[in-house]
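Hi R.,

As promised on Friday, here is the backbone we talked about, encoded as structure tokens. Could you run it through your design pipeline when you get a chance and send me back a sequence?
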């Protein structure tokens, strides 16, 4: 199959398997890294120091995949249709996709922080609204920068080498969201702890 000057292999069960397997193996190893960070002493201390951190963690990780997976799907569609070239340039489509994903990611992150505080108050537990929102702002910002950058690089690099970007989106977004979501949440706990 030929799209925008790039030869993309026809979709068959074997080609999909062959293209997806390497990135799935990387995702497996990265998932183990995320689990190691989650079980670390530093993370346990962060969970104990910030009421509600364990409550917001699953929502934060899940929304990384939702927000940036949607952006990846838009880019993949653009690549297949030939309206986005597999090189980084500030076209209107590319800029709109990046800005929309960044804003969505930040708004959702801040909402998670506020909602977590509300749930804590509703169940009679103490929690700091400003602390939770700041943690989510820092973690959301850092994860947005990394996820946007890496997702674009992986998709364009893979597409130029004949990989179907649809086979790369899911594992890439899931891995980045889990590993760096946990890492940046931990970083945010310590950054906000120094500030507040």
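Update: got your reply. Pasting your designed sequence below so it's all in one thread:
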């Amino acid at each position: 199959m030929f799209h925008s000057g790039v030869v993309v292999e026809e979709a068959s069960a074997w080609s999909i398997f062959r293209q997806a397997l390497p990135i799935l193996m990387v995702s497996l190893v990265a998932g183990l890294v995320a689990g190691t960070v989650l079980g670390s002493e530093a993370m346990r201390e962060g969970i104990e120091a910030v009421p509600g951190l364990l409550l917001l963690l699953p929502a934060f990780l899940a929304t990384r995949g939702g927000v940036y997976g949607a952006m990846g799907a838009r880019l993949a569609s653009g690549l297949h249709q030939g309206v986005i070239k597999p090189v980084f340039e500030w076209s209107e489509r590319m800029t709109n996709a990046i800005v929309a994903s960044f804003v969505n990611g930040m708004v959702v992150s801040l909402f998670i922080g506020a909602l977590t505080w509300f749930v804590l108050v509703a169940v009679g537990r103490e929690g700091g609204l400003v602390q939770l929102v700041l943690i989510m702002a820092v973690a959301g910002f850092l994860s947005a920068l990394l996820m946007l950058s890496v997702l674009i690089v992986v998709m364009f690099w893979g597409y130029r080498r004949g990989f179907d970007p649809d086979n790369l989106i899911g594992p890439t977004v899931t891995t980045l969201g889990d590993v760096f979501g946990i890492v940046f949440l931990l970083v945010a706990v310590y950054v906000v702890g120094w500030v507040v």
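One thing I noticed while checking it: The helical segments are 13-38, 41-49, 53-81, 92-122, 129-160, 165-195.

Thanks again,
M.
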